């Protein structure tokens, strides 16, 4: 996927994205990071074509994402938002099965394929035993996994996650990021996510897109992008780096 020089404004007065070019490598985990309000979620909204650039393009397999038919695009890319409204009185399995809608028409549906996809999505997210439970009765971490399961049932090649760890405690944050890593490793799923935690971004990403003020500042391997100079330049924070035998390089914020 290639993002070419996109410009976007939410309100027509100011460009929230100001000429962003970046790429997403197939089969890799790409994480968008940057300070509050720099345009991370807005960029993801263009990638998932919930918004259309004023100028510039987002291309998937050499085709502008805008030119895909909705169901065709849904088979290519699924997105999980930061906040999701739960329909009343819906079970885990029912909600996850909504992910199959792009594969169904009024005249045609393949029940076997749909059931297999839903069971697979529930298994990946460790929710099989909760399939009959009401979604509103689940914990925050479980609920987040249900939305991911719904996106997985869509069987798309790319999974976009907008701040998937927000509202989760540290245990569920790690659980979720391990799930993302496993989905990428086991099924070759391309992941594009927005994270705030720099150390988690370093640990779980193949590629980082670093943004500031609606612009892309750098893209590349975590160790090349997340440096003392970049953290000072982009976040105005003085940091140091150290090594851990298990997780490798990690960052320590020192002062503002
Ligand atoms: N619907 C909207 N209407 C007007 N302005 C918006 C809208 N959504 C976002 N913005 C503005 O666009 C800018 C970028 O917002 P965006 O949510 O993309 O940033 P972000 O980097 O994801 O921020 P955060 O880390 O705080 O979630 C911000 O200045 C925000 O106020």
TrEMBL record:
Domain ABC transporter: 1-238
UniProt GO cellular component terms: plasma membrane
Keyword Cell membrane: yes
Database matches in Pfam families: ABC_tran (PF00005)
Gene Ontology terms, MF aspect: ATP binding; ATP hydrolysis activity
Position of the signal peptide: none
Keyword tags: ATP-binding, Cell membrane, Ion transport, Iron, Iron transport, Membrane, Nucleotide-binding, Transport
Stated name of the protein: Iron ABC transporter ATP-binding protein
